[in-house]
Amino acid sequence: MAAKTDYWDILTGPLIRQNPVTLQILGICSALAVTTSLATALTMSVALTIVLTLAAGIVSVIRRHIPDTIRLIVQIVIVASLVIVIDQVLQAYFAEISRALSVYVGLITTNCLVLGRTEAYARHHRPLPAMVDAFGNGFGYSVILILLGGIREFFGNGALFGVPVLPLADEGGWFTPLSLMLLAPSAFFLLGLLVWALRSLRPEQVEAPEHTPPARAEPAE
Amino acid sequence: MAGRDWNPWLRLLALPNDSRAKTLIVAFLVSAICAALVSGATVYLRPIQSANRAAEEQARIEALLQGIPGIAHTLEQAEGALSTLVLDLDAGRAAEGITSDSLDAALSDPLNWTVLDAEQDIAGLGQRPDYMQVFLLRDGEAISLVLLPLIGQGYGGRIEAILALHGDLNTIAGLAVIHHSETPGLGGRISESAWQAEFPGTELRDGSGDLRFRVARGQGSGAYEVDGITGATRTGRGITQMVRFWLGPDGYAPFLEAIERGEF
Lengths: 221, 264
Hints:
By secondary structure, chain A is an all-alpha fold. Chain A has 8 helices and 2 strands; from the N terminus they run H-H-H-H-H-H-H-E-E-H.
């Protein structure tokens, strides 16, 4: 293990350079489903970051004593328990938002992002770096979610955090909400554009093509 | 540290990770601790959650009542109190021995549910509780408003709503959607007051007693239709079938007939 750990690097790496959503394309399901408004995106981000950080900490503490044969199950059980607790807390104290998030809080359990970080990083590192890494990844996920949520709510409802920003046509203004923005496909479009923009700015993120398309035959005249 | 360690905890930690004993013990410990954590959180938070749910339903009912014209006066006379009634659906009478408090417990018993066969089950419910809690508002002796909870199946999942009927038991006074999981922006608009505002004044049955109410595809026409939502045909059909099921013979019809006979 390295004698000195660069915590700043671990923390900020996943924000853009190693962003779990745009580079590794993990956690897409929830990123598409809960970003119809800023409030739900923010709650989901906070919930995932808390679960991820705690799970990484716990897995890292017991990392030397997890038998290899059952390591995935042990990790999933820990993650699932944390998720249930968070879900219960949301239902108790943030009933309105919890209803909007419906099943997606529960689905944090199966979010590849969480298992990916505990399996790939927390299992091999001391608790502090593991938690910093988890927090960084949670934060990177949050940045994308909040960005998508903001864009979708702004153009889909003319509002931010439920506060009207643009004058709606229904109420005598000029802005006609784009209903498409509230549907799942728009999240795909936006995420695709975002990945495109990021990889144009940072060409090192572009993946090598897995296979080359066959040379196109000349069209027969 | 020379020699054998007699502390069982340290001996466990010293076991090789892949030994069968350690695998079992770690699995057991992790599950036990996680189970304790989850149960603890659930038990501790349950009262707050049920209070939230009750408060939300209450708020929806109040909003529904506020929206009904001419009700404010009657409500004031009744001092804002609706009388609650747990109903035995098959008999159309008040259920014996079940109160609002014991309703949840009674409904956790599968014996108190009726399985619906395909012909009866127009709302797609599968089964129906035998007891429902309804609300009545009286103006003097006569019943001026009946609030009936409905359960239906929409496009995305269950829809729960409360339908308010005027004292003639045929004119809708309002509809409140308590819970739904329809597509936001399309079917999800059933929770908007703009759509629900279509309901007051709509009639359920024609002169011969046939249930005519429906959510139209597109603009509603006539006294029995409300406007549909563009792009949410299945949600609209879900609402239509929900209302028709619950006002039909397997729903509240026995109860409504009992009211007409003056039994309440």
